[in-house]
Amino acid sequence: MIALKNVRKSFGEIQAVNGLSFEIPTGGTFGLLGPNGAGKTTTIRMLVGALTPDSGTLEIHSENASSISARARIGVAPQSLALYESLTPRENLKFFGEIYGLSGSHLKERIQWALDFSQLNDRANSRAGTFSGGMKRRLNLAIALIHDPDVLLLDEPTVGVDPQSRNHIFECIEELKSQSKTIIYTTHYMEEVERLCNQVAIMDKGKLLACGSPEELIAQHATAAEVIAHVGEEIHSVGDLPGTVQEGVWRFESMNPFVELNQANNNGIAIKSMEMKQPNLESVFLNLTGRSLRD
């Protein structure tokens, strides 16, 4: 289990992380979400021991996250690619494996496993600088896994990749989940979180706003469903029902839209076609953090 307890970190007058507390169960995939400046990167850097918190504790399997033994159990695939483009995948994996203390036949086995896992066997001896964005991301992930860590931190792992590589990365993550790896996943793509994550934490301005499964967060924090119903240009009003009608299109929001739709039908308003946007994790995120763009 990974546990953060009342963690704080400031840079001068800027309080990047402000009393952050949550737990990540072993073997789950945990989505860490937040707008720019929320404190996600600072939190990740403290988890890997690159930053020391001003106060509070960060523990990985009951060990201080900054300890050598805890750091050895972590694999990191950062958004800024951590690989050498002048080296081949095999050379990159050998270099990083040796840093983690691997050698001999065990290192060779892990290199072969990583090449198979990332599907880079056919380019194992080509310079990484010649690779596509998707191939570099796959190598970045393979390097993070070379020492078989218990905990994997993935920071925007699908940025700049093609759909095939993106789907392969998803399949890799799902395979790692089946191996009971603990995965911390940061992304701005909500559909990725909904597909991959068992638990989600939403933070903003250094504070935790909500934490739970995607289903729990949607039930607790989502806004109403948005409905666009085509009722015909002869209809100009829906009476005391919510929303507005313009050019035969009735738009409204409701926590239970079928009540309004049934009432409209009882009032003689026929629904010719309809689009409904149900609450999702994106609507939860916007509801909690606000819709205004921030740099």
Word description of this protein:
The chain folds into two domains: 2-219, P-loop containing nucleotide triphosphate hydrolases (Rossmann fold); 224-278, no CATH class. It is elongated. It is built from ten helices and 14 strands. With 295 residues, the chain is of the alpha/beta class. 34% of the residues lie in helices and 27% in strands. The model has no long low-confidence stretch (mean pLDDT 91). The strands form three sheets. A six-stranded mixed sheet has the order 6-7-8-3-9-10.
**What are the secondary-structure elements, in order, as H or E?**
EEEHEEHEHHHEHEHEEHEEEHEH
Number of helices: 10
CATH architecture of the largest domain: 3-Layer(aba) Sandwich
- As a percent range, the share of helical residues equals 25-40%
Task: Please name the fourth-level CATH homologous superfamily of the largest domain.
Answer: P-loop containing nucleotide triphosphate hydrolases
CATH class assignment of the largest domain: Alpha Beta
Mean pLDDT: 91
Instruction: Report, as a whole number of angstroms, the end-to-end distance.
Output: 33 Å
Widest beta sheet: strand line-up: 6-7-8-3-9-10
What is the CATH fold-level name of the largest domain?
Answer: Rossmann fold
Total separate domains: 2
Global geometry: elongated
Radius of gyration: 24 Å
Counted beta strands: 14
Strand content: 25-35%
Largest sheet: 6 strands, mixed
Runs in which pLDDT lies below 50 for 5 or more consecutive residues are none
Supply the helix-strand structural class: alpha/beta
